[in-house]
Specification:
The chain has about 400 residues and is an alpha+beta fold. The strands form two sheets. Strands 1, 2, 3, 4, 5, 6, 7 and 8 form an eight-stranded mixed sheet that branches. About 50% of the residues are buried. It has three domains: about 20-130, Orthogonal Bundle (Butyryl-Coa Dehydrogenase, subunit A, domain 1); about 135-250, Butyryl-CoA Dehydrogenase, subunit A, domain 2 (Beta Barrel); about 255-395, Butyryl-CoA Dehydrogenase, subunit A, domain 3, CATH 1.20.140.10. The N and C termini lie far apart (about 50 Å). The protein has 13 helices and ten strands. The longest helix has 30 residues, at about 295-325.
């Protein structure tokens, strides 16, 4: 069922998000329903990134929602960014994931940490959608354990030489601009340096010594291209350091709360997509002479799906508003994506169960929704890491 047929806010709470947020929702929902949703199945089947959508989304101002107008952005906040992420993900979770990696992990990091020259050089084409952005932190042996990364950057004159690999990089195969983290070579021989040796760099497609390995064949989020990045004596001008040398962890950590808040809207879109499929189906499917929606056990699942979807919305919207006020807390940013991600997986399982045999065949989108939802319990920090972070924050703040 096409997004828009059943609105998550059309017959329930409106959340009083304001005229601007509501207008963005309607604009993105209309675009996603007509331009993305009809292609979602094919994007999943072919596992090909829909590059042509990027300029179209750029024309709507979606890539630079949080960026100042002087660089081509909309000058709005994280709440509006979350709404766009939700509605795009409702139409296609894989397009939503690539959008989040582009607009938040890359574009917003440059906005927050870049110099005026870097912003002027990189942001305009990223915001129009001419260029695609990515962020590269994880490595084959370093996922959540950021400090153990092996990619090195050695200073030579007016440039750095990068060597190493990055793994599981969303948008990696198609990215033109990448925010890449590496350890300054001196930190390799100075264990006490720890995270102080990590530095963020702006890498461009085509830089000497930079290449991408084969695209990964993923369970879900197909069409959101992912690959390994390879740096072999990659030459990076010193002017491409994002922030300050040795303070890459500060760049990374300062953006994590915003990253979690925006990405948490992806699972909400998946949950709404599950409702979009299930609600008409329980009217149309008849057993024992009546629509299955009249059975109490079916109604119970519908209730669970509806309540958890809106509970996730309330939490994520509250965290996004806190981000806009500069008041977000680490435990709540992690809590929002933890809750939304796990509830989205369960919501997709419920959708499959409600469709019965039809839920288990690929003529219906429920299998894709489940495969896509599971990513959010793993990517951008596993559920286990999120729980550890929340518990640690609560313990330390009550000491």
């Amino acid at each position: 069922m096409a997004p828009g047929a059943f609105s998550g806010l059309g017959f329930g709470l409106g959340f009083d998000l304001g005229e601007t947020a509501d207008a963005i929702r309607e604009t993105v929902r209309s675009f996603a329903a007509s331009e993305i949703a009809p292609r979602a199945e094919e994007i999943d089947r072919s596992n090909i990134f829909p590059r042509d959508l990027w300029p179209a989304m750029g024309a709507l101002g979606l890539h630079g929602i949080t960026v100042e107008e002087e660089y081509g952005g909309a000058g709005l906040g994280y709440l509006e960014h979350c709404i766009a992420m939700e509605e795009i993900s409702r139409a296609s979770a894989s397009v939503g994931l690539s959008y989040g990696a582009h607009s938040n992990l890359c574009v917003n990091q440059i906005r927050r940490n870049g110099s005026a020259a870097q912003k002027a050089r990189y942001l305009p084409r990223l915001i129009t959608g001419e260029h695609v952005g990515a962020l590269a932190m994880s490595e084959p042996g370093a996922g959540s354990d950021v400090v153990s990364m092996k990619t090195r950057a050695e200073k030579r004159g007016d440039r750095y030489i990068l060597n190493g690999n990055k793994m599981w990089i969303t948008n990696g195969p198609v990215a033109d601009t990448l925010v890449v983290y590496a350890k300054i070579a001196s930190a390799k021989t100075d264990p006490a340096a720890g995270p102080r040796g990590i530095t963020a760099f702006l890498i461009e497609k085509g830089m000497m010594g930079f290449s991408t390995a084969q695209k990964l064949d993923k369970l879900g989020m197909r069409g959101s291209d992912t690959c390994e990045l390879i740096f072999q004596d990659c030459e990076v001008p010193a002017e491409n350091v994002l922030g300050t040398e040795g303070e890459g962890v500060k760049v990374l950590m300062s953006g994590l709360d915003y990253e979690r808040a925006v990405l948490a809207a992806g699972p909400i879109g998946i949950m709404q997509a599950c409702l979009d499929v299930v609600l008409p189906y329980v009217h149309e499917r008849k057993q024992f002479g009546q629509p299955i929606g009249e059975f109490q056990l079916v109604q119970g699942k519908l209730a669970d799906m509806y309540v958890t979807t809106n509970a996730a919305r309330a939490y994520v919207y509250a965290v996004a508003r806190a981000c806009d006020r500069g008041e977000t807390t680490r435990q709540d940013a992690a809590g929002a994506i933890l809750y939304a991600a796990e509830r989205a997986t369960q919501c997709a399982l419920d959708a499959i169960q409600l469709l019965g045999g039809n839920g288990y065949i690929n003529d219906y989108p429920t299998g894709r929704l489940l495969r896509d939802a599971k990513l959010y319990e793993i990517g951008a920090g596993t559920s286990e890491i999120r729980r550890m972070l929340i518990g640690r924050e609560l313990f330390s703040k009550t000491a």
